[in-house]
Amino acid sequence: MAKSEQQLKMADAQRESTAQRSYEAYFQDDGKQRPFSETINRPIAEVSAMLSEINNFPIFLENLEKIESAGVTSIWKFKNRIGEGSFDLPMNSSFSENEFKFEAKDEGGFPFSLRINLVPAQANRGTIVRMRCEYDTTAGRLAGMVEKLLGKDAMTLTKLTAQRFKALCETGSVPTIQGQSSGREEDQSNDSKH
Amino acid sequence: MKALCWEGKQKISVKNVRDPKILRPDDVIIKITTAAICGSDLHLYNGYVPTMQKGDIMGHENMGEIVEVGPAVKKLKVGDKIVVSFDIGCGSCHHCEEQEYSACDNSNPNRYMADALYGHGGAGLFGFSHLNGGYAGGQAEFLRVPYAETNSVVVPKGIADEKVLFLSDIFPTGWMAAENCNIRRGDTVAIWGAGPVGQMAIRSAFLLGAERVISIDHYENRLALSKAAGAETINFDQTEDGILDELNYLTGGVGPDSCLDAVGLEAHGHSVTAMLDRTKAAVGLATDRPDVLRQAIQSCRKTGTISIPGVYAAFLDKVPFGAAFAKGLKFNMGQTHTQKYMKPLLQVILDGKIDPSVIISHRIDIDQGPTAYQNFHSEKEEWRKVVIKMH
Ligand SMILES: NC(=O)c1ccc[n+]([C@@H]2O[C@H](COP(=O)([O-])OP(=O)(O)OC[C@H]3O[C@@H](n4cnc5c(N)ncnc54)[C@H](O)[C@@H]3O)[C@@H](O)[C@H]2O)c1
Ligand SMILES: [Zn+2]
Ligand SMILES: [Zn+2]
User: Fold this and answer.
1) Is B243 in the pocket of ligand 1 (CB under 6 A)?
2) Whose CB has fewer CB within 10 Å in chain B, the N or C terminal residue?
3) Are B65 and B158 within one domain?
4) The predicted structure's pLDDT at residue A17
């Protein structure tokens, strides 16, 4: 049975109020999707300072090789996971108190953004970082392209990035097994360096 | 260097691999002097733990001499002899600050994957699958130890490796499991599994005030070692489904004050449920075989405590939760916070109160590793604990 005019109106109102709630709960300028959050065992000023130093980003953002020319516009150089070398993404950044937003400029051709906000954690447990990487939600094909280039979907990259950022803040570096020995690469040389 | 590598279900081989190098500023490299094979390694060997990759280096019970230190390492130096905890703590997160090292937030580079399985993933572990960080293990000539100051204890010169090696895992595991029993002076503790963890738990339970310890297994050789530590014993092959009755009889109908499961997901047995478990696990309908846990819950006294150091990996079928609820049982479990116990338990060893080396049954060199795994899996009566002499 077709819905009455009134039922449709009520449904719209309901959707709007839900959107309003998430608008308030998530990032200031958009509440589309729930960010991922981690608690960092460091004071908010320290975490904020870590984010203000753009050269730290390649340490915790996988595949980001380096950032050239900081400031409002910068070039983020990502490792290309499907081809050789790297690709450049011109990014805009904006900061307000404890809120950080990095967004690819249109001319970059890749709809990539990273949003972060910080709030103090309860019980003196440091800082809650809320983070979301997005590869665009409208241009599906493009988003898929970025996913291939970066080797991960946006939610997985967000989780990994948030956890690596937490490790950097808490321990001064990120955990790694890159470069460790394994039986997948046998060594026939037989001489020990130690 | 030579290393024991996982090559698939029930296949371990000795390979020549690259020596490890410092990858982070707080790493050290040790020359392994002695390593051991753990009951937990058998879960990997038997293919119960997902995300192992061919070529992964095994081993999480390790000790050796430091040969190289990273630039951020201050409290350790080349030449120090250290025992290394099997779980890896970063030393700085909330959980490490609370001495809950196996719940470390930062040491597992793949925590986001473990989060998907467990809600919240735990610490990285040496040689224990990629879900647990994919760290190379120490059944090898050398080992990289990350966050080395947090994850090691320096042992005094002159003490035999075998006396202190088990500070890396099973001694703290048995101790924490006994602590998790909430023992009050005079209590009775029933312990399933008389393997290395069970043996350490028996001795720890007595030191922590238990008056009676009842050790349950089906290998007479292992039960003899339990007796030597003062425990009463039950051979479950001779009681069939009668563990509950036997424990009730031994405790005057009350049940043990605490029940400790030092067996975990590969329980053996002839009970109907145990056979069902084996069939289900074989056809992939269940992941774990929790027959011991069922018995522990059934036999524990009302309001008693269940302590579970035995490893469970995923889903458990037919666990009598109604009985646990009705009796108001308390549960304590988990990977050991090894680092919390290494120093105090080193003192227990130096004071001569517990000698963990009594559990060793075999000493091998690394080339005998593959056969040792096979025997440790299938000849449990004789093969109780294997140590690998490396340097
Ligand atoms: N929590 C931790 O941090 C931690 C650390 C180390 C080991 N573990 C786990 O502890 C458990 C024991 O380790 P281990 O090295 O002593 O292993 P093990 O395999 O040598 O010993 C297990 C013993 O349990 C006995 N057993 C099997 N089925 C039984 C049953 N139905 N009733 C009574 N006994 C039974 C076996 O006969 C064997 O003697 C394993 O699950 C291991 O993974 C946990
Ligand atoms: Zn172990
Ligand atoms: Zn930690």
Assistant:
1) no
2) C
3) yes
4) 46
Whether residues B211 and B67 share a domain: the answer is no
By the CB < 8 Å criterion, does B92 face chain A?
A: yes
C-alpha distance from A139 to closest chain B C-alpha (Å): 27
Residues B224 and B346 both lie in one domain: no
pLDDT interval class at B290 (50, 70, 90): confident
Give the ligand at the shortest distance from the Cα of B173.
Answer: 1
How confident is the model at residue A4, as a pLDDT?
64
In single-letter form, the type of residue at position B374 comes to Q
Strand, helix or coil at B176?
helix
Distance from CA of A192 to the nearest CA of B (A): 6
Could you say which ligand is closest to the alpha carbon of residue B98? 3
ipTM of the complex: 0.91
Choices 3.10.180.10, 3.90.870.10, 3.30.530.20, 3.40.50.720: CATH for A32-170: 3.30.530.20
Average pLDDT, chain B: 95
Clarify whether residues B346 and B211 are in a common domain: no
Q: Test B20 with A181 for CB contact under 8 angstroms.
A: yes
Max CA pair span of chain A: 82
Residue A21's contacts (CB-CB under 8 Å, 6 or more residues apart) are: none
Whose atoms come closest to the Cα of B90: which ligand? 3
Ligand 1 atom at minimum distance from B43 CA? 43
Helices and strands (DSSP H and E) totals, chain A: 5, 7
Same domain, B260 and B163: no
Q: CATH number for the domain including B271?
A: 3.40.50.720
Using one digit for the tens of pLDDT, what is the confidence trace for B72-83?
A: 999 999 999 999
Round to whole Å and give the CA distance between B218 and B23. 45
The pLDDT tens digits of the residues spanning B331-373 come to 999 999 999 999 999 999 999 999 999 999 999 999 999 999 9
* C-alpha torsion A151→A155→A161→A164, nearest 10: -100
* Separation of CA B161 and ligand 2 centre (Å): 17
Tell whether the torsion through CA atoms of A41, B341, B290 and B321 is positive or negative. Answer: negative
pLDDT digits (tens, 9 = 90+) for B199-229: 999 999 999 999 999 999 999 999 999 999 9
Whether B55 and A176 lie within 8 Å, measured CB to CB: no
Atom of ligand 1 nearest to the CA of B218: 37
**A34 alpha carbon to ligand 3 midpoint, in Å?**
26
CATH number of the CATH domain containing B361? 3.90.180.10
Q: Is the CB of B268 under 6 A from ligand 1?
A: yes
| Residue where a domain stops, chosen among B316, B333, B350 | B333
Please choose, from the candidates B110, B25, B34, the residue with its C-alpha nearest in 3D space to the C-alpha of residue B76.
B25
CA of B216, closest atom in ligand 1: 33
Residues of B in contact with A160 (CB under 8 A): 112
Count how many pairs of residues, chain A against chain B, have C-beta atoms within 8 Å.
119
Q: How many domains does chain B have?
A: 2
CB B136 within 8 A of CB B125: no
Identity of the residue in A125, A167, A182 whose CB atom sits nearest the CB atom of B94:
A125
Question: Range of B314's domain?
Answer: 173-333
- Look-up: residue for tokens 């440091």? A126
Identify the pLDDT of residue B274: 76
- pTM of whole model > 0.95? no
Dist CA B27 CA B91 (whole Å): 13
